[in-house]
Amino acid sequence: MKLFISADMEGITGLVDESFVDPSKHNYARGQEIMTQEVNHVIETALHHGCREVIVNDSHSRMNNLLIEKLHPEAQLISGGAKPYSMVQGLDDSFSASIFVGYHAKASYQGVLSHSMTFGAKRMYINDTEVGELGFNAYVAGYYGVPVIMVAGDDQTAQEAEALIPGVTTAVVKQAISRTSALCLTPEKSGQLLREKTAQALSNLGQVQPLVPPQQPVLRIEFANYGQAEYASLMPGAEIETGTTVKFQAKHILEAYQAMLVMTKLATHATFC
Question: What fold does the segment set 218-268 form as a domain?
């Protein structure tokens, strides 16, 4: 069995504000340590339950956060930015399952550090289904026939995952109080929970179906201001549909995913003044 792990940072226990997830801030090194610990709990349990190969994709910001020297030695790490498929780089049909660790709720919703890719994106849709990073990444996994069997993060992320993926196992390592505060498990307790939930998810592997994306999906992204929408619409094939919403007709979910990456990146060039 081959397992793919996508590891974000905002959904890790104890990480509650930007000081833990921004490399320029004072708590970032602590955040790296706890993030690496949480991923290791999942890896160790997966190997114990029959996984022969575990690939971890660092999926936060510049995607070089995990401490490879402290990562479980039997895992392999995809690290670094400018990945063609960002948070799901390396995922293909050779994997039996995927687990998302350290995930957060989508933009415009309650949850610790909730957002969707960039802070300019207010809402994203695949056809009529609203998605955040969790949903979009699960659709890419589904394109390859790979189920997302577990999602770890705060309670709001767990609710989002359960509404989207029937039968998914969720590991709630913190309860959101506000966007920058939470009731957190200690790393020791979060480790126990992650090991228990990973074992449960692997035992229930056959009960979770891949989230199959629609064919020829329409991607829509609503941005925070019109300038962001203008920049995003510069991508060939994209157009402002209404207000600050930009539309893109994709051939398949992989093209929609790359279009989302380009559009959200272009939008960051807009300013608020």
Answer: Gyrase A; domain 2 (3.30.1360)
